[in-house]
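Morning. Coffee machine broken again, so started the prediction first thing and wrote up yesterday's gels while waiting. Chain of 620 residues, entered below exactly as on the submission form.
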Amino acid sequence: MEILSVILSTSLAFVIIILLLATKSRVAGKVTSGLVALTAISGLLIYGYGFAHTLDSFPLAVVRALLAVCGMFLGKNELSAISGAPMMQEAWAQIIFWLFHLLALYIIASAAIVAVGAEALKKLQLWLARRGRLNLIYGIDSDSLSLGKQLNMSKQDSVVFVDRKASTGAATAISECGAVLRTDFDALSSSPKFLRSVALTRRGRELTVYAISKDPAANIRYAQKLLESLRQRNISPQKTRLVILCQEDRAIEKLQVGQDKYGFGFVAAVNEPELAARVLMQNFPPYRHVQFDADARATSDFRALIIGFGQTAQAVLRQLVMNGQFEGSTFHAAVFAPDCQRVDGYFSSSYDALLKNYDIQFFPCDARSRDMTQYIQEHGNKLRYVVICTGSEKTNREIAEDLCAHFSRQNLTIPVYECSRQGVKAYDKDGTVSQQEPLYQPHLLNMRQLDLMAMKLNHQYSQPTERTALECWMDCDYFSRQSSRASADFANAMIFAAGEKDPTQWELTPAQLLNLSKTEHLRWCAFHYCMGFHPMSQEEFLHRAEEYNRQRKETGKASIRVGKNMAGRTHACLIDWDSLPMLDEKEKALTGHQVNYQDMDTQNVLMIPKLYQLSKGGSL
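Came back before lunch.
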């Protein structure tokens, strides 16, 4: 019985050691660091005591004690040399002696155990990761490593990295954040075997894929291969989410679920300039720099200054237009960039209606020029927002420091932000960075909470229907999803305009509801202009009405929207609020279909209390 007890106890201790090595390394690392110090101190006390009793020479005792402590970490012991010391005759002292030698051996052998049994330990780690929501990250670099670390802080999430290879430093970082690294063929090919190994079943866990390598084409190939394996295993699209670094039009049609088409249930195509602009809007929203009266009507204009006009600055301008529209306020933006007329070809052709409908001025001048100084002298007291995105961190910093100093001398309080592919920085009055936000943040990438809010809006828009919000969302095209997301994203601005009261306790006055509805229409128009839309001409509207009536006569239903042409990017509702009732009547006269476009804006406002509840963790 005693022999069996020893064997069982020894086996249990060995399993504990292996689990400590296999589980999240940040825990093991903290434990090991403490054990190193404890073992070294204990060794010095034990051997110092032992050699002091067994050796007559003080210097020799010191040297022997130091060598013995070092030997502990090499698997050696000097028990025979100090056994003559009185305390070492006791059984309890010998237990302590061997215990600390075991700890020393564990510390030094842990690396060897990992190296020798790496594959077995990897399988054990993967088994431990077969719980909660699964996050697959394709592509390893500093950004994806940061994302993985943030994701793995949640007890609900497990993280698996997939790439062809990883440097020693990257592999160590992945292990330290408690994630799993897969570089094998099955993982790279996203085979059904790989999906089985990570416990993806038809009714199993939720999957989020981050295809965010810096090679967009590789991201698309990986997502397509994974999608085919998911289809083979009959994984419900409702359980899958894809965040992919690539151009939107290259990915969505192939990868997003649609009517009679298998695909990822939730898809977000991102690029770093757009991501940087979104981080800016989320953390430093324009509405906080506008004043509103008791009727939720803005009492000040929004004037922004953008320095630079590369891809990031262009994304910032579009986001500012989308998020800077309020009833009672006028939007103004000035762009200072020496090369703005040489790099704006794509922007000016794609968003010409945007440039025509908003006061956006371009100055082909350096931000450190006299022209800039003159602009600030003329408009400084009206400026609400400054964003620097020249593409050079050194230049960004120099301009930020100069502007902060200039504003301080002029006694102006104007927020200054730096926006780049490295993240977003907010500058204090003295030119120091007061806040810094990374680009790759889980909630901004996977949009899980935002999609719940967007689904609610889309479901309300789809009424009457017997289908659930999720079912409607699965059949929703990508543009309509983006539109619903933009509306949901603006809810906080509406709450701020109404006095920052808890929306669930709202009792809006008629004036507040009207002004918020007008603001929603301004936001809706801005979103469409920023997506490259134009107002629909009278001729096109009449032609589409004829086609609508023809289809209804022949088939009993129509496949087109009269006032919305997605292919041509035109929309009849891109008019001012007061003209919407006339559009209602015109559409009714031509098609017999009764609409109320102003009421659609109002209904979005009335949905805000429900959106607020969802943003606080509610469910559909």
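The CA atoms of residues 238 and 471 lie 9 Å apart. Going to sketch it on the whiteboard this afternoon.
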